[in-house]
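User: Some background: our group keeps a shared notebook of sequences we're curious about, and every so often someone picks one and asks for a predicted structure to add to the entry. Today it's my turn. The entry only has the sequence so far, pasted here. Could you supply the structure so I can complete it?
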Amino acid sequence: MKTVHSQNIRSLAASICVIASVAVLISCGKKDTDKNELGAAEEVSQTTFAVSTINASRGELKDYLEFGGDVSAKTNIEILPDAAGRVVELSVSVGSYVAKDQVVALIDPSRPGMNYAQSPVKAPISGTITAVNVVVGSMVSQQVSLARISKTDSLQITMNVPERYVSKIRMHQNALLRFDAYPGELFEAVISEISPVLDQSSRTMAVKLVFSAPDPESRPACLPASSSSPTPARILLSFPNQQS
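Assistant: Of course. Here's the predicted structure to add to the notebook entry:
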């Protein structure tokens, strides 16, 4: 009888020890969890973010399309000599401004055994020289262009619009232009001409724009240096969002 009673006491003592151990483990785990949560809370409380706010206003939501284009003068005149011969004098270069009837070159039409007076070549209109095609010593005929004069007060921008965007293009639609010569500046333009046909090879439509209020100081930098190297422009077109 005493033996059974002793065994019961031992079992009870063992159970009490197990319960005490579990309680200690739970208590330690809770303390660690509390410490971790407290540390995370302190870390979050120390992190701050700066934000800015603006007042919302009701307006028209617009979409934008960006295209590449080339700048050129609307009026371009080739300077042709009145006589064939050798260029003995050339008094203009790209960027030079010339007045109407100003002498830009001299041609010597002489041939072996035959001497003729030099033939002056005059500018047919006033404008800026945008291309020079000859040098002193060149042999030219009456069909060879010595240089090109462009009217810098009438520039146009030509862009090719992909077929999928043609439906968004309208006459007199406003646009913004960007040039490498003027970083950070935008120039206002408006669509002045839309081709009625689509180019079958490129599947694009030619569209032309003109400056809305051109700045005279911006025109020379926007002009192409030559016909083979047109001045590039980035064109931003805006239109109402049809889903708004």
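Suggested note for the entry: Residues 196 and 205 are 8 Å apart (CA to CA). The two ends are 93 Å apart (CA to CA).
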